[in-house]
Amino acid sequence: MMHLLQGTTVTVQVPEIPPIPPIPPIPEIQVLPPWMVLPPQVIGLIGIAMVAGAALVLFPIARAIARRLEGRGVSQELLQQVEELRDRVRDLEASQHRVAELEERLDFTERLLAQRRDVEQLPRN
Based on the domain organization, do 68 and 81 belong to the same domain? Predict the structure, then answer.
């Protein structure tokens, strides 16, 4: 603390605090669609790339459909293999009856053997 001389007065002036300036308005951010921002050359390249990609994907599919419609899509070798498979299925279906008959015979034989064991285990008088 300072000791002032007696009888002297000190006047302190406090400067006035200036007011806070107003906040400027936030500018609107404008989001533009890509076709307005990109140069026309880039948009053209993107269009060409999309058409080329669609052609690469759809061309083989369209060609396969056209072959199918013309009837050329089936080769003689494939038809021959299908016919061989059909013959094998017919043979298997015919042998299925034989397998069922063999199963019945096996069941009959097992029952006979089981009865024979039961008879042998009976006490003899």
Answer: no
Residues 35 and 43: beta-carbon distance below 8 Å: yes
9 HSE (CA, 13 A, CB side) = 2
The tokens of 48 are what? 């060409």
The DSSP annotation for 43-70 comes to HHHHHHHHHHHHHHHHHHHHHHHHHHHH
Q: Which residues span the domain enclosing 48?
A: 43-73
**b/e 85-113 (16+ beta carbons within 10 angstroms → b):** eeeeeeeeeeeeeeeeeeeeeeeeeeeee
**pLDDT tens per residue, range 6-61:** 767 778 888 888 899 999 998 888 888 877 888 889 989 999 999 999 999 999 99
Q: Is residue 65 part of a domain?
A: yes
Q: Is the pTM of this model over 0.70?
A: no
